[in-house]
Write a structure and sequence with these properties.
Length: 137
Amino acid sequence: MSSPYDDIIHLPRPSSARPRMSMAERAAQFSPFAALSGHSAAIAETARLTEARPSPDEACLQDINRLLQEAALPPRPRIRIRYFRPDARKSGGACVEHTGHIRKLLPAEQLILMQDGTRIPMNDVFSAELLEASPFG
């Protein structure tokens, strides 16, 4: 039985004038291609949750101001301050807690300066709690 390829079936395999590609180079041709670079980061950013800004009532704000004043005076008790940190990329933000000693209140800048250098905007504070007096006054 004869085949239409009988004339070429037993010929040697043709070779190229170019050098053969290494296995690593061949594999690189078939590696995944990131056609949508940044897409997974955008999805992760969209999925990231933020919280709404808490809005304390007037009585709560007066308590917070009183506690801040008290914590800024000797013997400088430790204070736990809960405040809202706005998100830089989307609406909302995160409720953050900081515990320490107040170094200084800066009413003109509406800022609380803590001993460790943390700066907390007064307008973002929604809760404060005195913990104990400082042993070093």
